[in-house]
Amino acid sequence: MGGYASGRWFGHDKKTTIEDCHALDLGVLERDGAFAPWRSGRYRWLVGERETGSIGYRVEQRHGGQLWLVLDYAWGEAKEHVVIPVRLETTRPHFGGVRWWDRCPLAVNGVACNRRARKLYLRGRYFGCRHCHNLTYKSCQESHQRDWLYSRLAERLGTSMRDVKRLHRGWIRDAQRQ
Description:
22% of the residues lie in helices and 37% in strands. With 178 residues, it is α+β, with helices and mostly antiparallel strands. The chain folds into two domains: 122 residues, no CATH class; 32 residues, no CATH class. It has a six-stranded antiparallel β-sheet with strand order 2-3-4-5-6-9. The chain has a three-stranded antiparallel β-sheet with strand order 1-10-11. The protein has a two-stranded antiparallel ribbon with strand order 7-8. Helix 3 packs across helix 4. It is elongated, with a radius of gyration of 23 Å.
């Protein structure tokens, strides 16, 4: 107990972060005026000036006026053609206007998700919400990096981990003042 590599993440894969996936942001499409029936375009991901990926999209009106965002892209080494229809919805914020949402198109264990989201993430072959892809935020993983150290110090000092964290934050504030 407490030996080399006995930390929480040893032998355990960390979750993939949303920062490691391509995100389709409906807010960006909304600002570009994409949500009109029969509108089409291209969504691109850039790192600086370099394009790291792109997909085609079109908006279709189906089922009594319901709008659908149809994603159209090539996936993988074989450039497999993938088409995914995503149902769109709107809500009215308190201060006016319209906010667009999508319904997650994925099914997990045979059950359709249909969770409302503003962003869909490409992980593997399909776009889905962060819950279906089991994604987390990088900041969540980094927020507990020192917990193993705090718990060891607390154990040796005979106090709680909370007290050690509070003491450490005080040292940092004192160092910043100097």
